């Protein structure tokens, strides 16, 4: 998840952000990873990684944590839900859920336009064209009519990495988290500002740290997992 919104229009217009502004921590060659989350997926997920269009094109640790948590402890809760992933990059979390869970509605994986081709490639690579819809969603902009507003489940992994984008993320979270939405938000703390984002999010949403993850001991020092709900009562 990225920022929640109480931000004004001025603050969202102040930052025109693209993947080009976010420097990759290290460049690695394009490759395809095969992941089964230690047997949680009967059919492994194939994920092509490519940093050509930005840092979202590689696997990030919070994505692995969130995908494993959803597969291990929330499979049944996803049945019949409308699911949307924010800042999907190559689509790790959404595609893992599509591989391992039963649901009737299409699952949406979203990111900026530079990531669209990679999302589409990974959907095809896993034969998930009938179940997963890649789409462009720019934080801070109006939600396109092709994307569901107020999904049942909103997924956001490693979206907190670039401080100038926080107001844009906050705006988008505010637009998408409706009365029946549960947002699962996971990020790796890299700097003090990341926790300031969470402080702002708590003012906008009911935020709860998830403490029942069976794998928490493996990442508890620097990766944080939360769920969030609207404070607005319909």
Give the uncertain stretches in residue-range form: 1-25
Radius of gyration (CA) equals 16 Å
Give the terminus-to-terminus CA distance: 22 Å
Number of H- or I-type helical stretches: 6
Secondary-structure element pattern, one letter each: HEEHEHEHEEHEHEE
Going by helix content, strand content and strand pairing, the class is: alpha/beta
> What is the typical, i.e. mean, pLDDT?
86
Q: Portion of residues in helices?
A: 25-40%
Number of strands: 9
Strand order of the largest sheet: 5-4-3-6-7-9-8
Query: Beta-strand level of the residues, as a percent range?
Result: 15-25%
What is the overall shape? globular
Characterization of the model:
- With 234 residues, the protein is α/β, with parallel strands linked by helices.
- The protein contains 6 helices and 9 strands.
- The strands form 2 sheets. A 7-stranded mixed sheet has the order 5-4-3-6-7-9-8. It has a two-stranded antiparallel sheet with strand order 1-2.
- The two termini are 22 Å apart.
Task: Record the SSE blueprint.
Elements: H1 9-14, E1 31-35, E2 45-49, H2 61-73, E3 83-86, H3 92-100, E4 107-111, H4 116-125, E5 132-136, E6 153-157, H5 166-176, E7 182-188, H6 192-204, E8 205-209, E9 223-230
């Amino acid at each position: 998840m990225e920022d929640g919104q109480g931000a004004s229009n001025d603050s969202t217009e102040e930052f025109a952000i693209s993947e080009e502004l976010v420097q990759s921590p290290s460049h690695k060659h394009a490759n395809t990873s095969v992941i089964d989350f230690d047997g949680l997926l009967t059919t492994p997920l194939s994920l092509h990684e490519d940093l050509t269009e930005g840092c979202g094109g590689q696997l990030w640790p919070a994505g692995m944590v969130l995908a494993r948590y959803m597969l291990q402890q929330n499979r049944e809760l996803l049945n019949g839900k409308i699911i949307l992933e924010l800042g999907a990059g190559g689509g790790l979390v959404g595609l893992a859920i599509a591989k391992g869970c039963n649901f009737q509605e299409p699952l949406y994986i979203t990111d900026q336009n530079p990531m669209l081709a990679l999302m589409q490639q990974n959907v095809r690579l896993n034969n998930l064209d009938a179940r997963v819809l890649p789409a462009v969603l720019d934080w801070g902009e109006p939600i396109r009519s092709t994307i569901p507003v107020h999904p049942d489940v909103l997924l956001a992994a490693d979206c907190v990495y670039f401080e100038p984008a926080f107001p844009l993320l906050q705006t988008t979270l505010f637009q998408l988290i409706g009365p029946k939405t549960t947002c699962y938000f996971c990020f790796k703390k890299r700097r003090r500002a990341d926790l300031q984002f969470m402080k702002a999010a708590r003012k906008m949403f009911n935020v709860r740290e998830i403490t029942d993850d069976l794998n928490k001991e493996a990442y508890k020092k620097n990766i944080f997992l939360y769920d969030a709900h609207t404070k607005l009562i319909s």
